[in-house]
Structure formats: C-alpha cells, structure tokens
Amino acid sequence: MNILVTGGAGFIGSHIQDRLIALGHKVGIIDNLRSGKKANLHPQSVFFEIDIRDQKHIPKIFSDFQPQAVFHLAAQNEVPYSMDHPFEDADINITGMINLLESSRLHGLPKFIYSNTGGAYYGEVPDSHLPLPEDEPVLAPTSFYGVSKAAAEQYLRLYGQVYRLPWVSLRYSNVYGPRQDGNREAGIVAIFTQKLHQKQTPTIHGDGLHTRDYVFVSDVVDANIAALDYPTNDYFNISSGSATSNLAVFDTLESRFKTGFKPQMGPDRPGDVRHNSLSPTKAKKLLGWTPKTPFPEGIRLTVAYYQSH
Predict the structure, then answer these.
(1) Cα–Cα nearest to 157, from 173, 171, 144, 142
(2) What amino acid positions are annotated as catalytic residues?
C-alpha cells in the first residue's frame, strides 16, 4: 500500500514511517523540516520537502504518489508558541489540514488518520472528571493550539460526512520516547532528559504538581496501525489513563542519571492546564489497542536512546 505520512521526519511520524516500511508498505514523507530531521528519514522512504499549506505542490504529490492512506502528523504542536503566534498556529493546523483534505477528497483517498491532541483538546476540566472519556464536552480550551487542533478535527469530520472521506482521529495524551527533541518548548520528558544528560538543571514551570498522562511512542504507533484497518469513522483517546506530576517525571529521570540535582522552579506558562489524563477505554474496546509500556520502562528506553546518541 502507498501511504503518505505528513510530519514523517519528526518524532512520532518517523516511528510510524519505520513501522509501515517494516510491514511492507511504500511510504512517502511530507515534511518542511521546520522541526523534523533528515536523520529520521528511512532510506526506503520517498521524501517530499514541502509545507502542508502549499496548495500547488500537495495536489501534485497526491497525483504522483497515489496514496491509499494518509497519516497526518505535521503541525505546530507547542502550546507556548501558539499563545505568542496564534495566526501561524491556526494557519498550519487548520489551513494545512484543509489543504490535505481537499487533495484527499479529489484523489478519492480510502483512509485519513489524524494525529490530534488529547492533552490540550479538552482544556481545563474538574479533577473529578479525570480520566476524561471522548464524550467529555470541549468547553474550556486554554490554548490556541488546543483550539486549532480541535477545529481541524471538525473539518475532518465534516469532510467525512459531506464527501464520504473515511477517517480516524487519534487524540494523544503526552507522547514521549526516543527521537523527541529536547530543545523545544513541548515534551518535558525529552527536555528534562537532555538537560540531565548534559549535567544541566531542568526548570519546572509552576509548583511541580501539574499532572499529565504519558504514553510511550511505540504504543502510539500501535494505535496508528490499528486505525489503518478500523472500518468506520471514529475518534479515540490514545493514553495510559493515569496521571504523573512534573516533579514525579523529574524524580524518575533523576533516579536514572543520579546527578544529585534539584529542579529549578519557574513561573506557570500561559495555556497550560493544571491536570490532564485521558481514558483509553474506548480504544481498548473498539480498536483492540492497549498501552503496553509502563512509565518507568519507557523512561529507561528513552534515557538509553539519549545516552547512545
């Protein structure tokens, strides 16, 4: 099967690329290398260095490559950046999605799989509602990133309704693991790992008691592969269902590096929700997917990757 992966030179996309190639698929990568890296590209992939907003070349890629599925991961995915650059955030996450959907519609694409956010999608909710199911009302987003990613899913659902475009949306909690860039604003596991590996002191924004739901990247890849064969249009939380505080993330990593450092405490960041965890029950029941990697084991694998690179 010919499959396009947008953002395929990035953290999650490159792992999906590798799995698809191992399964025998022909993979095309669409990436403008804004955050993706050529080093993440598989030698067998066909690489298109292009922005998903390019209305001239994206349709040509669909015409030439003839994809039978698209995994859409390319995005502006940093909450703080979205708060400072709302126009750019919306342009990439919404306009870029529409551009891909139009090419998918005209091409008669058999399957569109969208990598959405779950951590920022639902916004601030009462702690008593956690872990959140998919039918939790989206009433109080706290970041433009959450708004733009949620809006893109609505476009996807409407294209499915109006044009019969088959789709699945996967709402990720906080994904971590090898290849995640520790030099960016998102992904504290990667940020803390890189800092400690370089014998530098990480900064925790807030009091350290903010909690997130962490899911290992290989488990996320499993969910994407399961979505490829899922027969109906639907959306799923891809998550562990449990909450881990920022301080607990630091302590787990420090137990590996044994630097003796204590974290620096910094101010809260605009757009960050206080607590978030997502229920994976629906994905377990309908997708046949379950997270397999406990957080300590995922941290071990992540640290080993950084130490070997």
Answers:
(1) 171
(2) 145
Could you tell me if residue 192 is inside a domain?
Answer: no
Q: Report yes or no on 209 lying in a domain.
A: no
Q: What is the DSSP letter of 206?
A: S
pLDDT tens for each residue of the chain, 309 residues long? 999 999 999 999 999 999 999 999 999 999 999 999 999 999 999 999 999 999 999 999 999 999 999 999 999 999 889 999 999 999 999 999 999 999 999 999 999 999 999 878 887 888 888 999 999 887 778 899 999 999 999 999 999 999 999 999 999 999 999 999 887 766 899 999 999 999 999 999 889 999 999 999 999 999 999 999 999 999 999 999 999 999 999 999 999 999 898 989 998 877 778 888 999 999 999 999 999 999 999 999 999 999 888
Spatial separation of the C-alpha atoms in residues 251 and 262, rounded to whole Å: 9
Total domains in the fold of the chain: 1
pTM, full prediction: 0.95
> Residue written as tokens 């592969």?
225
Residue 126 lies in a domain: yes
Residue in this structure with the two tokens 């919404």, named with its chain if needed = 94
Query: DSSP code of 185?
Result: S
Cross-strand partners of 69: 3
298 found inside a domain: no
| Residue 111 one-letter amino acid | K
Q: β-strands 112-117, 167-172: how paired?
A: parallel
The dihedral sign for the CA sequence 226, 229, 230, 236:
positive
Q: How far apart are the first and last CA of the chain?
A: 32
Domain range for residue 124?
Answer: 2-177+214-241+278-292
DSSP state of 123: B
